[in-house]
Structure prediction request, 358 residues.
Amino acid sequence: MRVLAAMSGGVDSSVAAARMVDAGHEVVGVHLALSKAPGALRTGSRGCCSKEDAGDARRVADVLGIPFYVWDFADRFAEDVIDDFVASYERGETPNPCVRCNEKIKFSALAVKALALGFDVVATGHYARLSQGRLRRAVDVDKDQSYVLGVLSARQLRHAAFPIGDTPKPAIREEAARRGLSVAEKPDSHDICFIPSGDTQAFLGARIGVRRGTVVDDASGAVLAEHDGVHGFTIGQRKGLGIAGPGPDGLPRYVTAIDAESQTVRVGAKEDLEIRSLTGTQPVFTSGVMPQGPVECEVQVRAHGGVVPAVAEVVGDELRVALRTPIRGVAPGQTLVLYRPDPAGDEVIASATITLGR
Prediction:
């Protein structure tokens, strides 16, 4: 089998590529250049896709004895991930750029090019498993990335491989060291890769500018403060609201709603954040089969969040989810991912982009 190994320069994708070589496949390594100024996209463990990362990936490929290339996807990444991220915040949403990158770049643009060149699958260092075409959680629950892969279609999953999903992260580092890979102790990247400073508000402010609005008490309608744009807020936020203090009850205030059209941010009590139902658009069914009728499931709405029991049903072009246990702080633009509530509880059923929670 011809395998294109997506090599970020980190330990996970390096070991994934090594395992595909061990399995006897014809492997070619590729590093995606996602920035027009790659030297600026890593600060310690922040960011990724820097010249340093490309060099690390190349050195691993040399150790493995496989061909290695750098492919320029900077324009596509800017349009499909960064511009989408900024536009989503402009609309008062809270997007997950890692979800969009997997959907639009790694398993769409990259996979399309790989298949056109005669490769059978794209192998990545994601912590997830594939079993008979079904997407499942990784063995290492703390590192599991099935949530950010839940947007992949059955066709995309047929051409994907996740070689390290059956192994805990510490064992991956040990394996990299045994193989003599220089990235064995390289820090994991975290936060948003294209914001290496970690200052999301400054990044958004530089691109969106000042759009003044008000912070309003949800109960009384009183204007509590002014702000420079709704892109500086997200549902559930407690700090940095610019208000004088807690509410009349002496308790903290939280962002409960955002209206981008009027540039209004509403704040209220913690209890006001409780959500008992969700509506999502653009549903994706990872098995390729749309469930008929209501389906018992578990739903996850954050990459590192827990799951709650729910009942989901497709209504028209929407996925509607009734939660058996309320959750807090859900924002439009987030991704909901459904899991099958079997004893293992690890199979992804579907995903959708949240448009409404109530």
Notes: The chain has three domains: 2-178, 210-268, 274-357.
